[in-house]
Amino acid sequence: MHIGDLQEHERMNTLMKILALSDRIVEANHSPQLVERYGDVDLVIGCGDLPYYYLEYIATMLPVPVLYVHGNHDKPTQTANRGTLDAPGGCISLDGRCMSIERQDNDSPLLLAGLGGSMSYNRKTPHQYTEIEMRARALKLLPSLMANRARYGRALDILVTHSPPFGIHDGEDLPHIGFKVFLSLMRTFKPRYLLHGHTHIYRLNTVSTTNYEHTKVTNVYPSTLIEWNGGR
Ligand SMILES: [Zn+2]
């Protein structure tokens, strides 16, 4: 094997494809076309405000983990048999948690943390937080992030949120103001990505990716493919 082949081999081994979704159903993703388009992804991440049946469909069709955080519009829903559904079945909550995903090549795992919800504006749905409340949620992640840093030499690869950070892709009305604590988390723990939703994009020239310190802040609305090549 030539060195060039070896490098290509290694590159292919370490590439990880992540399908990130938020806020709106993409009809092609809610049909058998999903497998044609994204049958090779390694991980799916829902960034909130997605109907549970949509995430469940994706979890059924793709044989990979489907992680999610909640959006401000997520709330318990009645099912046909009069049960209450407050989370998508077959999916894994990343909300308020840290998680590591092992990679096929036995490379260092992908390190994730999730903080769903939006700025609190009416309390009619469960996933609304003041800045102080979100700061308290972020503090609870610290022991895991510090443990990651000690074990892997880095604390976090991808921070998954619903709301954007304050001042980046956010709005001026209360529900759409971003969280300042997300800026602190990015400065302190240096994730490669912050994936968020919540801010709907209506114009083609709307900025959806912004570099902040070491982090690529990405509005995934409504569907974005991230190619993760590991390392830094
Ligand atoms: Zn939202």
What does this protein structure show overall?
The chain has a 6-stranded mixed β-sheet with strand order 7-8-11-12-14-13. The protein contains 5 helices and 15 strands. It has one domain: 4-Layer Sandwich (Purple Acid Phosphatase, chain A, domain 2), CATH 3.60.21.10. The chain is of the alpha/beta class and 232 residues long. A hairpin with an 8-residue loop joins strand 7 (97-101) and strand 8. The two termini are 26 Å apart. The longest helix has 22 residues, at 131-152. Mean pLDDT is 91; it is low at 1-12. Residues 48-49, 71-73, 118, 162, 198 line the site of zinc ion (ZN). The site of zinc ion (ZN) has 8 residues, from loops.
Q: How do the helices and strands line up, and which of them pair or pack?
A:
Layout: H1 3-14, E1 16-21, H2 33-38, E2 43-46, H3 52-61, E3 66-68, E4 77-78, E5 84-85, E6 92-93, E7 97-101, E8 110-115, E9 118-119, E10 128-129, H4 131-152, E11 158-161, H5 180-189, E12 193-196, E13 209-212, E14 215-219, E15 223-228
Parallel strand pairs: 1-2, 2-3, 3-6, 8-11, 9-10, 11-12, 12-14
Antiparallel strand pairs: 1-15, 4-5, 7-8, 13-14
Helix pairs in contact: 4-5
The protein binds zinc ion (ZN).
